[in-house]
Design brief:
Blueprint lengths: L1 E6 L2 E3 L5 E9 L6 E7 L7 E7 L4 E3 L7 E6 L4 E6 L8 E8 L3 E3 L3 E5 L2
Parallel strand pairs: 2-11
Antiparallel strand pairs: 1-3, 3-8, 4-5, 4-9, 5-6, 7-8, 9-10, 9-11
Length: 115
């Protein structure tokens, strides 16, 4: 079992920044990928924001390139999502995803970008 806990969401003005954290605990060995997804209001599906593999390969969705940065602290088993130049369209619940043999999801953290 893996426990996944996100934190760091909140209300921010357009152009502002937020850093989300995703802490994994429990049986974290053999995690192959950790990723951030988001689900915007009224949307049925989550969309990928970005991911980082066990080997440190990072990929981003097109909308995240140049604005969002994923990093990892292995000592804390934590992955971060630094979000800059936030737009109202970035308003969503952000979820952390952990891939092992089975998938694990966090409970989500709300990000609201509004003036």
């Amino acid at each position: 079992q893996v426990q996944v806990v996100e934190s760091g969401g909140g209300l921010v003005q357009p152009g502002g920044s937020l850093r989300l954290s995703c802490a994994a605990s429990g049986n974290i060995f053999s995690i192959s990928v950790m990723a951030w997804y988001r689900q915007a209001p009224g949307k049925e599906r989550k969309e990928l924001v970005g991911s980082i593999t066990r080997n440190g390969i990072i990929t981003y969705a097109e909308f995240a390139v140049g604005r969002f940065t994923i990093s990892r602290d292995d000592a804390k088993s934590t992955v971060y999502l630094q979000m800059n130049s936030l737009k109202p369209d970035d308003t969503a619940v952000y979820y952390c995803y952990v891939q092992k043999v089975i998938d694990y999801w966090g409970q989500g953290t709300q990000v609201t970008v509004s003036s």
